[in-house]
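Input sequence (308 aa), recorded before submission:
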Amino acid sequence: MRRAMTTAMVAVVGAALAVPVPASAGPASGGVFPALQRDVVAYYDFEHPAHGNPAVERDLGRSHTDIGLVNGGAAMRERDRGGHVLRTKQVNPAALGNDDWKAGVYTASGAASLHRFNAAREATVLGWFRVVGEAPALNTNTADPADRYNAVGLAGVLSGDSDGHAVRALLEVIDVSGELRVVALGRRVDGGASQTFAASQAWQDVLPRGEWVFLAATFDYDTGEMALYRNGKPLDGFYTVTGDPWLVQGPPEPDLTTATDPAGIKIGGSFPQNTVERNPCDCTMDGLMFLDRALSPHEVWQQYRWGR
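Predicted structure, token format:
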């Protein structure tokens, strides 16, 4: 059961439009384990429409970054887990279009409110996820009616030069050597190579259809270490790229992400500016958090227990 939480005023409306709002309140505390509150850059519980607009969700973290509920608006708020959760899905699998339900925010020049991910040393992406329907979805960008996307988007922070797809830190399900796996995917340098840490366990066992699961992914851009957690416990996994894709070996130290503000946040699919459909998730989500620190295994466990 989620706890009631205080509100924080926020400053981004829709998928790409910024509107100044006074930051008169501190970060929410109810859904965040108290020791982690200062590290939460953005947090969404889908109980707080911003400025009375049900198509916009208020950020309860410190960054005041609202996100748009793209294409579905108020209909994307479903009752579950003792309150409201976010519903994302593919709307029309038979036609090319931009009507998939997803959420996020996008600013091509960089979202200043997400500055704490600028030249960041670490990051964590976490939340509650429930797969509702078939995954991966049919690919609406190809002529083959049987073709499917190679990934299912969950939640992530975009890179500074992102077109709405490329990320700095991401949780998703993606094809790894011909097999879908739950992964943490990160990129340290804008335009550079990404690294993927993939769960060894079959993705359907990590995310059984119809079951709420707590997932977390941590990223240490200085050491190159990544980790995945399910229901508070570490998942066995492996790195998919050999060598040093993040270019962390050698000076200077410490190794940080590119000194650019992220272009935004994507949830339930790519391109939160709604220009292209890709990797939709037929899912419900709740308690999404984006932190600028790689949580320890014990901290992930504490947050899982706190948010159940």
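Checked by second reader. Residues 92 and 102 are 13 Å apart (CA to CA).
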